[in-house]
C-alpha cells in the first residue's frame, strides 16, 4: 500500500498511555493521520497543555503525526467512506477474517483499486467496537489468539495490524 494513505481511528480509548503508544506506533508505521473519536484523550487538553500520559509514551510522536478529534464516529466513518477510504475494524467477532490473510482478502476483492486509502479502527480496551459501529465498516479483521488470554492490549494489536497493512 505504498501509494495509499493509511489512517488510524481510535475510538473510546480510555488509557492515555495506550493513546500515546499508538501515536508512537503510527509514526513508525507511516500513518498519515490519527482520528480520535468518542472520549479518546487528545495530546493536549482544552487549554492546550500537553497531556503527560500521552507525551510520556509517545515521546514526541504526538507532534509528528497529524491528528483530529471527533466525537461522532458514525459521521466520521460516513465521511471517510464518501472519500473512498476503506474502513477496516480490528475486533474479535465471528465474521472477522484473520489479519494474516489481509493481503489475499484485499487482492481477491480488488480493494486497493477501488479505494483511495485504508483506515484501521480500534476500540475501547474492555468493550471493543460496538456491533452498531461494526456494521458501518467495510470489513472486520482479527488477530487470532493461541494462548490462554482472549486478547492483546489495544496498542499492541493496532501495531501488529498497522504493520501488516503496510505490506499491501
What does this entry look like structurally?
With 168 residues, the protein is an alpha/beta fold. Helix content is 37%, strand content 20%. It contains eight helices and seven strands. It has helices at 16-29, 52-58, 61-64, 73-82, 102-108, 111-114, 131-134, 154-165, and strands spanning 5-11, 33-37, 67-70, 85-90, 97-98, 117-122, 139-142. A seven-stranded parallel β-sheet has the order 3-2-1-6-4-7-5, with helices on both faces. Helix 1 links the parallel strand 1 (5-11) and strand 2 (33-37). Helix 1 packs parallel to helix 2 and helix 1 runs parallel beside helix 8. It is globular and about 45 Å long. The N and C termini lie close together (5 Å).
Strand count: 7
Alpha carbon gyration radius: 15 Å
DSSP strand (E) fraction? Answer: 15-25%
How many DSSP helices? Answer: 8
If strands are numbered along the chain, what order do they take across the biggest sheet? Answer: 3-2-1-6-4-7-5
Biggest sheet overview:
7 strands, parallel
Shape label: globular
